[in-house]
Amino acid sequence: MKPSLILPLVGVCSIVVSAASLGPRAGSARTADPTFAEDVAPIVYRNCTSCHRPDGLAPFSLLDYESAAPKAGKIKSMVRSGQMPPWQAVGPRGVFRNDRRLTDEEKAIIIRWVDSGAKPGNLNQLPPRPIYSSGWEIGTPDAIVQMPDAFVVPASGTVEYQYFEVPTGITEDKWVQAIEIMPGSREVVHHVLVYARVPSPPGATPPTPASPRPTPLFVRNREHDVPDPPRSDSTPRRQLGALIGSTAPGTNVVEFPAGAALRLRAGTVLTFQMHYTPHGHQMKDRTSIGFKFAKERPDEEIFAAAFVNGSFTIPAGARDVAVPSGIGVTQPVKVWGLLPHTHLRGTRWLYKLERPDGTSETVLDVPRYDFNWQTYYLFKTPLEIPAGGKLTSMAWYDNSASNKDNPDPSVEVRWGDQTWEEMQYTGFLYSVPGRPPRPSP
User: Fold this and answer.
1) Using CA atoms, how far apart are residues 302 and 257, in angstroms rounded to an integer?
2) How far apart are CA 380 and CA 336, in angstroms?
């Protein structure tokens, strides 16, 4: 079966509800017991229903009182503990534009609503419900690329990561404004990473440079490179390209601000890295990725890249093992988002910006990293790294028996794709100030 590229004929539909239309906000003068219609719905419509809706990532809907009320006790517990909405970072609000944390007042309203009997209120006075088009949070995509065939996930056991290469069929460069991944069977898809590359034509050889190569933009620590795995044959390492999209509980959509977009080049081939978890009965999955295109060439071109430390060893039974990494820049760079990624032994992350003058500051602190709730942290104002500066990361791991998620505390752990192995991986989105997007060659 050929890979599917679907170009919808219908117009793009987007979420049309604004915060102002959702009724009273936290901080209103109401003194009566909170009700769903007047007090709770405005909060959950703003913060929760992108997942908690029919066909969403979450197990129940919060779009209507009948679905929310039976879950009132669980809602209270999750809101009070801070587990919902999922957000593992700490620090001041306003730094990340996708910050999902509720305010203290919003939390108090929800807890009071539950404690006072989870009253419905006048359901005729509900604020307008958010509109989600065809299950896609980004609205109907301009293009959809789908796995070429369905993959059969067994009823039980462990499924190694699966890789599916899918040509996009795109014949001209496209500027991508938003990206979303749609699992075919959410019950068995734990997470998906989608990489993009443009293959070299068959038989092509790299051109011989006529002049010295320009100074590389990034300075990497080669001691942290991922070692080549031992091989019994001459099979080359899998070529993935740049990570452009991901979905996992906690993150799904990457959307760029107006005036910034990521270029999807003609001839791009996508690789879907699929992590499946059997769900008790055999199921089929055929995951898709959707793109919304910018209407014009952006002012800034967003690039996707990563930096890693692949040379670590975590001793058997060890707790609180710190593994560093970092990347330097030779000219100013704007960082638009950071994606910390470890597996089941990862417990926390800390990122710092180190300036050439010796000063530094924390730019992302994730003390409660959770493999099951991964997030692309998108800066509200891009993080500016000056020439000669460095972005550093530190990840901590717990390989002891006290880590309830640890697959096997009796073995030492090194870099590997599978969840019983580990990674120290940071995906990041960046642009280069003063480098306007160039036309396609």
Assistant:
1) 11
2) 8
Which tokens in the block code for residue 92? Answer: 């001041």
Tell me whether the omega of the peptide bond preceding residue 407 falls within 30 degrees of 0, making it cis: no
Indicate whether 331 and 252 sit together in one domain: yes
Which amino acid, one-letter code, is at 309? N
pTM: 0.83
CA distances, 29 to each of 21, 25, 34, 111, 318 (Å): 18, 10, 11, 17, 53
CB atoms within 10 A of CB 218: 14
d(CA 326, CA 390): 7
The string of pLDDT tens digits covering residues 73-98 is 999 999 999 888 889 999 999 999 98
Residue 440 domain-assigned? Answer: no
Q: Which two tokens stand for residue 286?
A: 């055929």
The per-residue pLDDT for range 122-174, each reduced to its tens digit, is 999 999 998 876 678 888 999 999 999 999 999 999 898 899 999 999 999 99
Residue 281 sits in a domain whose CATH number is 2.60.120.230
Dihedral over Cα of 171, 303, 273, 189: its sign: negative
Q: What is the pLDDT of residues 216-226, one digit of tens each?
A: 999 999 889 88
**Cα radius of gyration (the chain):** 23
- Confirm whether 4 is domain-assigned: no
Rounded CA separation 25/109 (Å) = 10
pLDDT attached to residue 326: 97
- CB contact at 8 A, 148 and 2: yes
pLDDT band at residue 374 under the 50/70/90 scheme:
confident
Contact 321, 315 (CB under 8 A): yes
CA-to-CA separations, 87 to 96, 127, 156, 368, 389, in angstroms, rounded: 11, 26, 30, 9, 28
Q: Which residues lie across from 413 on neighbouring strands?
A: 314
Residues 396 and 291 in one domain: yes
Residues 179 and 37 in one domain: no
Structural domain boundaries enclosing 246 = 153-200+213-228+237-431
Q: What pLDDT, on the 0 to 100 scale, is given for residue 405?
A: 94
Query: How far is 222 from 323, CA to CA, in rounded Å?
Result: 15
- List, in sequence order, the alpha helices (H) in 82-123: 104-115
